[in-house]
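Notebook, p. 212. Picked up where the previous page left off. The plan for this session was modest: take the two constructs that came back from the sequencing core last week, fold each one, and keep the raw output in the notebook itself so nobody has to go hunting through shared drives later. Recording the first one now, exactly as returned: residue sequence, then the structure token string.
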Amino acid sequence: MPGEAGHDRGMYRPIALAALAFCTIAPLGARALPGQSLADFDSWVHKNATLHGISGEAQLDGTIDYTVTIAAGPSTATYVASSDKDETAIVRESILLAAPDDYRLDQHREVGARLLSAVYGGKVADDFRDAKVAKSNGEDPPTVAMRGALYGYEISGARLTVRALADFDIDLATL
């Protein structure tokens, strides 16, 4: 019956399986991550088949958001990279899985790791798998901040954000 706990979890299983299937066969490219220059980011995007078709749009705050929709089995995910205000470096990157409003990647960490692997490769996915929870704000859905050895990760619902550790520490104080 709809609304029962078992039924709700069951509807997420196809999303998780689709994301895992997509990420297992997705080609791995060079890596660009928060903190890299826009020139490095541009070079990486052109070498990463997963991100072909990415486009940039100027934001009101002076930054640029680069976005592309990627296939994730029968679902999709949107990759977004945001520049700094000087438009010299990427400061934040996110993957938003198309999922029901109450889907929580913090409860499906392996799905998040597989999405990261598809975009960045196994090293970043492993860093995410090993990341420790640094803080959770307790909201519904919660924003969960995790610190890895390489990057900071923030999960809110179906959005997984990757940050340079220096920026992560600043944002962690305001979570």
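Okay, moving on. Second construct, recorded in the same format:
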Amino acid sequence: MLPNRTSNFFIDSVGEITTQAYKGDFTVKTILTIGEKIELETEKTKLSSDLVNVSPELKTVSTILAELKVRVIESPNWWKESNNGKDLLDDNVIFDIYSKVIDAVNDWNNTLATKAGKKIETGSGSQNPPIQS
């Protein structure tokens, strides 16, 4: 039997630019279905297709925003009102949330490996959200 494919975590972050407090509970998908993987790639393409000579930093942010759009199931109102992070001025908040998603995905992979009697290295596996540059 597979581990639960969702995970919950709490974010408590302060914006580096606005100094605004961002707090709240998130529920995210720790593993994606085939359809969700397609949705993720479609979203990545939409966010970066109009960019010419995109910097590695902007490509990373685009990838993270696409991952969060597909993976976040439940979120605080401020996240929804910020267009899933796209309208935030504080990119550190997006990185903080994404870091928690990576932790949740790694926990899922480790739980699965433990059930199978295997040990995996943190950060490996096809379900880990990639940060591409």
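Notes on construct two before I forget. The radius of gyration is 15 Å.
Flagging for discussion at group meeting.
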